[in-house]
Design a protein that fits this description.
Elements lengths: L10 E6 L5 H11 L7 E7 L4 E7 L2 H4 L2 H5 L5 E7 L14 E4 L5 E13 L21 H11 L4 H8 L3 E10 L4 E5 L8 E4 L5 E4 L2 H6 L3 E5 L4 E6 L2 E6 L7 E2 H7 L5 E2 L2 E2 H15 L6 E4 L5 H11 L2 E2 L3 E3 L12 H11 E3 L1 H4 L3 E6 L6 H12 L4 E6 L21 H4 L2 H8 L3 E4 L2 H8 L5 E2 L1 H4 L8 H7 L1
Parallel strand pairs: 14-24, 17-18, 17-21, 21-22, 22-23
Antiparallel strand pairs: 1-4, 1-10, 2-3, 2-4, 5-6, 6-7, 7-8, 8-12, 9-10, 9-11, 12-13, 15-16, 19-20
Bound molecules: iron/sulfur cluster.
Length: 465
């Protein structure tokens, strides 16, 4: 669970089918991606003649009911679930957004990630354009729409010319009245996968769990720097830029669903491997290993198997709180922890407890969790974190916004342990985390190391420092 209130980034899906309604498949895909954002949702579908969009604030089921889906006929569609990492939480920032090119082509765009700038001449007043500053009040997606809309040529050409100059993290899906486009940034920060529908159509999505939801077969990951064009039943692809791959290691640690494949690895298996590595690096004499549910469950299982210490469910999580408690903000987080988690006294009473979490950002929630375990009778509480210490902000779409908010920036593991009231606290090393998650050279570990795969803006850097 997001015990520290860490923000997910967004999720996108795109579908093109020879005959089946795209809206229902986009809807199913978005339901499978709901964990990536609960603030807003939407879909846009083209029927060859008209491109229609429905979007709003709330969960997928609240925004896209049966009536709304009926209002979206057509076989080409895209969808989005939003967690606000840039821009405010307003209806205007819900996606997909609509645009129209100077040649009169209607399009709809949805985007996952965070842009650092666009090296291209843009429309007047463009905040992300050449010489502009990063991280503005408007969404990155609107900046992309404005750039494409101001281009004098066809959309194909506009995308080819724009994408190489877009800096930062993005996976985008774009639908016209009859064509689907998808693109992944040159570093491949955020995941994007390609699947084949049973009827011969295609689907792209942030995670393979969305493909599973519609019975699509996983084909491959979109390559970093790849543009995919789905037109007239055919797929054309091209690499528009090449750069060292740097997929977010945090997708494995926390963001993605455990049943998804990221970079060819099942996230659940990776999380178990993280937990096993943690048991090797940070052992402690104990009677029981418990997870902070749900995200840390596979890591706790891995820790227990490796250490031989009994595994048990020592916390029960309330799954029915609604998105109010998933919203960003310290007050909501503090209020939410006690309602989210409840210890099981019979599991922890008189026991030396190892509590495994996926990550620590602010540690205020872990402090409450430790206090709850002690109040329930735990004899000792040892916190083990199945990722390295986060000490730096993320500029690529995950809501870790400033170093001041990060307890790992100013405190050692031992000091954080004291702060949360634990008998001991330890993190996994960056090396072991990267090894468990894939090839270390193809991962971004910026928020753990301060070493980013690409330059970060001066303004953001000094604000972070
Ligand atoms: S800085 Fe951290 S959260 Fe952001 S992309 Fe890199 S690994 Fe992921």
């Amino acid at each position: 669970m997001p015990l520290d209130g860490l923000g997910e980034n967004c999720g996108v899906a795109g579908v093109t089918s020879p005959g089946a309604p795209a809206a229902s498949m986009v809807y199913a895909g978005l339901l499978a991606l709901q964990h990536r954002g609960q603030e807003a949702a939407g879909a846009a579908v083209g029927d060859g003649l008209v491109l229609r969009v429905r979007r709003g604030l709330g969960l997928v089921t609240e925004v896209l009911d049966e009536e709304k889906l009926r209002e979206l006929p057509g076989t080409v569609g895209i969808g989005h679930v939003r967690y606000p990492t840039a821009g405010g939480s307003t209806l205007a920032n819900a996606q997909p957004l609509l645009g129209i090119t100077r040649s009169g082509e209607h399009f709809s765009l949805a985007h996952n990630g965070n842009l650092l700038g666009i090296d291209a001449a843009g429309p007047p007043g463009d905040p992300l354009g050449r010489g502009g500053r990063a991280r503005t009040g408007s969404t990155d997606t609107q900046a992309l729409v404005d750039h494409l809309a101001s281009h004098p040529g066809p959309l194909d050409q506009a995308l080819r010319e724009l994408l190489p100059g877009v800096r930062g993290a993005y996976c985008l899906v774009l639908a016209t009245r009859s064509t689907l486009y998808a693109a992944r940034d040159p570093h491949g920060f955020r995941p994007l996968c390609l699947g084949r529908l049973p009827d011969g159509g295609w689907m792209v999505a942030s995670e393979t769990a969305a493909l599973d939801a519609v019975g699509a077969e996983f084909v491959r990951d979109a390559q970093p720097g790849e543009l995919l064009v789905f037109q007239d039943g055919r797929l054309r692809t091209e690499r528009f830029a090449a750069a060292p791959q740097a997929t977010c290691v945090f997708e494995h640690v926390y963001i993605a669903r455990p049943d998804s494949l990221i970079g060819g690895r099942r996230v659940q298996q990776v999380r178990q491997a993280l937990g096993a590595a943690l048991a090797r690096e940070a052992p402690v004499a104990a009677d029981v290993v418990i997870p902070v549910p749900d995200t840390a469950r596979p890591a706790a299982i891995g820790y227990a198997r490796q250490s031989g210490v009994l595994y048990a469910e020592g916390f029960v999580r309330n799954h029915y709180l609604g998105r109010t408690f998933l919203r960003p903000g310290d007050a909501a987080r503090r209020q939410g922890v006690r309602l989210k988690l409840n210890p099981v006294p019979e599991v922890v009473r008189g026991q030396r407890v190892i509590v495994v979490d996926d990550s620590i950002v602010r540690a205020t929630s872990m402090k409450q969790a430790v206090a709850m375990l002690r109040a329930a009778g735990a004899a000792e509480v040892h916190v083990r974190v199945a990722s390295a210490k986060i000490a730096w902000p993320c500029f690529f779409g995950v809501d870790i916004s400033s170093r001041e908010e990060l307890i790992g920036h100013s405190m050692s593991a031992a000091e954080i342990g004291q702060f949360v009231g634990a008998d001991s606290l330890d993190f996994l090393s960056v090396e072991a985390m990267s090894d468990a998650a894939g090839s270390p050279e193809s991962l971004c570990t910026g928020c753990f190391t301060g070493s980013y795969p690409t330059g970060v803006p001066l303004e953001a850097d000094s604000r972070a420092g």
